[in-house]
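Worked Example 4.2. Consider the chain below.
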Amino acid sequence: MSSHAPNRARVIPLRPAPPAREPLWRDVVGDVLRRERLAQERTLKDVAEDARISVPYLSEVERGRKEASSEVLAAAARSLGLGLADVLSLAQRDLARHSTRTASVRPPMGEVRLAA
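Applying the procedure from the previous section yields the following structure tokens:
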């Protein structure tokens, strides 16, 4: 009598990979503002005071927790020596880069996956 358990095939269900979450606009814009501020080695306090925005609010905007108005975005951009169009252009570039990256990960519609 063998002490080994019989070999059993293990079935692993195939689940489609969850779709990559497309970033929210506020996340992308917040990342741009933070990246620009850090590149200039400036503090939240410095930029917020210059833009006449509260430090906690600017922090929330940078973290994508708040959807800033165009007036707030323009003030933050000016404080960083940028125009609103510059911030929006950088955000659009980041969003396009993300969408290109997720498109290469996502399988085409109708693709059949087989497992052996």
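Residues 61 and 95 are 17 Å apart (CA to CA). Helices lie at 25-39, 44-51, 55-62, 70-79, 84-105. Compare this with Example 4.1 before moving on.
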